[in-house]
């Protein structure tokens, strides 16, 4: 049997989008992934369903025995002929024990590659508005492991205290009192600024600031936990002006995205760009339907109600010149953008995604209409004078979920985003309305918002056919949604408030 190859890779820190393109490619092709506790689960979601996932969740109080098991597993899986991805948080060669694993692979005669990752030592301070180096302040920075091991070299605090550059301690939160007191005892000025950053580059990032004398108490009072990193030096003072990530609209918030999977990816990326964390839980899937485009010469107008129906139509059409005589209508901005990708402009446009509102724009010019959509609404078409033929291009199918699964998803978030009224009904029919009463709720359009309100629930904001950045920002402007800063801490925003829906009143 041919021996496999091992890739020792860094997944970056926290933020899913900080992984490298090379790592993304390797994950999508992986046969076996051995990963640590600090690896973002969204990264693992990219792995093929056939991939074997093996978790070794050691923290910084565990070491040798688990590491030996990891090394042995790498060798075992490679000898099974699998290409193995060893996935670590941060960078594998920055206190990641990647070198030890590579040496064991060399001894076993197994081929390997090192895939660098974004290390928290530099990236996490940047997310907290702290440059690791800054002209006029320091010309060096020094990175240390903050926890000691029996087999490791102890930190020479007498030497370290004399360094003028920025000091960075990784995995040191449990030893912060020992670290700061030793630095002061060996001559470091007690007023030297210190920042501690918890859960860096994630929506749960928190930063506390003090000095060598006060920081231990501040950390204790604010219950700062691992994973955290410690930054010591005058560059910390720049945070007062440069802090950016913790000011994002959704920082500290977790959003349940209930759209179908394609749209859910778009919404999730928007959530991350606003500093939040998304949890995807689609209640419907869109599956292409087998259909035949009728003779277009028999129509004078074609209407598209969604990007999905439009793309399905254009995948089938053999010659775009068949549309030359037709007036084209679209519902919603995204559908118009989809039409534009085919170098076509809409003659009829409704900024709403409601089919009825698009149909209401028809005039006497549009006598024979082809309505391209997902499911039939023939019962609602009788009120229109035009001859309307429906062309269904895809199915909308429910995703079967247990009540327990839905409840677990809801309890894990503080914002719920609804794409349509059907999803609202499905969710509430499943678990009831009470569980939603303490959540922030947003909707993609007014019709969906009205459906939510019919259950006696508040709607904090709704979009004009889609959930946008402005929808989220409007939601966040409601009373009590944003907590201020206090004592150098960017606090997590509280969950459980019932808000008046300013934008949806």
Structure, explained:
The protein has 505 residues and is α/β, with parallel strands linked by helices. The protein contains 17 helices and 22 strands. The chain has helices at 21-29, 41-44, 64-79, 98-107, 120-127, 157-160, 176-185, 215-221, 239-242, 261-273, 307-316, 333-340, 355-359, 403-411, 421-431, 446-453, 469-476; strands at residues 6-10, 32-35, 52-55, 84-88, 112-115, 141-145, 166-170, 193-198, 206-211, 228-232, 254-257, 277-280, 284-288, 301-304, 327-331, 348-350, 368-373, 387-392, 394-398, 415-418, 440-443, 461-462. The strands form five sheets. The protein has a five-stranded parallel sheet, with helices on both faces. The chain has a five-stranded mixed sheet with strand order 6-7-10-8-9, with helices on both faces. Strands 12-11-20-21-22 form a five-stranded parallel sheet, with helices on both faces. Strand 11 (254-257), helix 10 and strand 12 form a beta-alpha-beta unit. Helix 3 crosses helix 4 (98-107), helix 11 (307-316) packs parallel to helix 12 and helix 15 packs parallel to helix 16. The longest helix is centred in the N-terminal third of the chain and has 16 residues, at 64-79. The radius of gyration is 28 Å and the shape is elongated. The N and C termini lie far apart (67 Å). Residues 479-502 have low confidence and may be disordered.
